Structure formats: structure tokens, C-alpha cells
Amino acid sequence: MLNMLNDWVIRGITYISIKEQIDFSTPTGKLLLTMLAAISQLERELIVERVREGVASARSRSRIGGRPKTDKKLIEKSLKLYDAKLCLTFLHPSNENTCKLI
Questions:
Q1: pLDDT (tens digit, 9 = 90+) per residue, 31-85?
Q2: Count of alpha carbons within 13 Å of 58, Cβ hemisphere only?
Q3: pTM (global) more than 0.90
Q4: Between the CA atoms of 17, 21, 22 and 26, what dihedral angle is there, to the nearest 10 degrees?
Q5: Are strands 87-90 and 98-101 parallel, antiparallel or unpaired?
Q6: What is the rounded distance in angstroms from the CA atom of residue 30 to the CA atom of residue 37?
Q7: For the chain, which domains are there?
Q8: Which pairs with CB-CB distance under 8 Å and at least 24 residues apart come from 30-38?
Q9: Which helix (H) or strand (E) holds 60?
Q10: Phi, psi of 96 (to 5 degrees)
């Protein structure tokens, strides 16, 4: 963001936030932008650090993350049904024979 604003200054463009009433072409505006960027970077790095610590803690308790494994037989059955384009019949109060392709 700082690089973009510097490029704009070189081209004679100034950015003024109307809502926050901050002129980023002034030294005070540049300081505020630099501080916000530093705080944002700190927050992002803290999130990454916490996630790593959480994963390490889970692993130390023999916990494995991710989706549970799906039974291979169930996958094969699903693929066969999909390939066969079987029509499933459902009982529905308004229409007794509704058909849905899977």
C-alpha cells in the first residue's frame, strides 16, 4: 500500500480518505498508514503463530486434523450409481413419484 501511494505521489495523485478524514499525502497521514500496516502485519503473523502452536499441541495429543477417511466401498458404490445415472424414486406428499438423477 505504501508503494502504491508513493507511485501516486510521483504521478501527482493524492489519496484522501473522506470517511476517516485522513490525507495520506501529509507526514501525519503517512505515519498513520505505516502504523496501520505494521499492526496489520503483526496481527497476521500472530494468527499464523497461533495456528502452528495449535497444530503442534494437537499432534502432541495424538490428534490428527483433516477430514475423516471415507470408506472405499462407499466411494465405489457412489461412483457406480453416478455412472449408471440411476433414478431414485422418492415418496412426496404432493407427487408420489418424483425422480431425481444422481
A1: 988 899 899 999 999 999 999 999 999 989 988 777 778 888 888 888 887 777 6
A2: 10
A3: no
A4: 110
A5: antiparallel
A6: 10
A7: 2-60 (3.40.50.1390), 72-101 (no CATH)
A8: 30/2, 30/5, 33/1, 33/2, 33/5, 34/2, 37/1, 37/2
A9: helix 27-60
A10: -65, -30
Among candidate residues 4, 24, 27, the one with its CA nearest the CA of residue 14: 24
Burial label for 51, CB within 10 Å (0-12, 13-18, 19+), is exposed
- How many distinct helices (H) and strands (E) make up the chain? 3, 4
Q: Can you tell me the distance from the alpha carbon of 47 to that of 55, in angstroms, rounded to the nearest whole number?
A: 12
What distance in Å separates the CA atoms of residue 76 and residue 73, rounded to the nearest whole number? Answer: 5
Angle subtended at Cα 46 by Cα 44 and Cα 51, rounded to the nearest 5 degrees:
100
* Residue 67 Ramachandran class (φ > 0 left, ψ -120 to 50 alpha, else beta): beta
